[in-house]
Write the structure tokens for this entry.
Amino acid sequence: MADMAATLFDDLLSTITDKALRRDVVDRDELLAVLASEDDELLDVVAAAARVRRRFFGRRVKLNYLVNMKSGMCPEDCTYCSQRLGSTAQIMKYSWIDTGEAADASRRAIEVGAKRICLVASGRGPGERDIDRVAGTVAAIKNSAPGVEVCVCLGLLKDGQADRLREAGADAYNHNLNTSADNYAEICSTHTFDDRVATVTEAKTAGLSPCSGAIFGMGESDDDIVDVAMALRDLGPDSVPVNFLIPFQGTPLGGRWELTPQRCLRILAMFRFAFPDVEVRMAGGREIHLRSLQPLALHLANSMFLGDYLTSEGQPGQDDRAMIADAGFVIEGADEPTLPAHRHDLVTLRRRGAGSSTPANT
Ligand code: SF4
């Protein structure tokens, strides 16, 4: 009986892999089956998803670097966030750092291999002066390193703000969906899932490369995980950060440790099958949840953050670079496109203004 179940799973995994390699849509039940796989099947799942990763991204690893331009004091109440309203987490709180400081931090990161700089600020969304300030920072970074990608993450956008960021030279906008629509009220009461969808759509329509992902380890079910993956797929992001909850004391989810390294690998494998040719990024929490299995995750994700996160320390950059080399991967060069040609061309077209006629699922 056990042999028959194993054979059925092998057949299913083979079907899922072939679909992903062809860039066909892997359906909901198939994605759920990846999450429900047994520990005995885990290495088979990783090996299958690794084939998909290699097909579209080879052995390249893209490095991204976060610059936290404004930290803490947010009026929103996202339960997972150390910067939320009422958070007593021990984090640094400051209002906007100046352009020179952000540009210097970016330059140092670029020198050690960062290909994308992510400019992040806490808050519900930017005011007009905030957009001016960030536009100046984008310009300063681009002036000193024209080839670097700059992604901006400022929360919910109002009409016209995405256009202004694109005109300032920003390449991408990050706004995560975080969890499923059904589960969203469990993690936030001050804005909605639909608000987040609207901002990702706004950024994409303005010609910015949409970056949107999720956080896991917040009590969500397998259905929630697949639902948010499918909602993301409908938005057609170019990059998808996969975060694992950093359970800050002083937040409602403080002390919640429900993930295992195996569960994290299944989630990353599921995202690789759902997004075969899209940048899938290991993001916050990888060190504390994947632990000694981090190198295996490189076979699934083609991108990761280098160094620290918004309000917590990551592992030192030299450890990340050593891990990448030891696992047989290479850091992606500044002049190598991250996405395969068919997707890279869409990003260029969107930016030139042809994106409004691009179907959402491309
Ligand atoms: S996730 Fe963003 S919007 Fe939510 S509390 Fe944190 S900084 Fe504020």
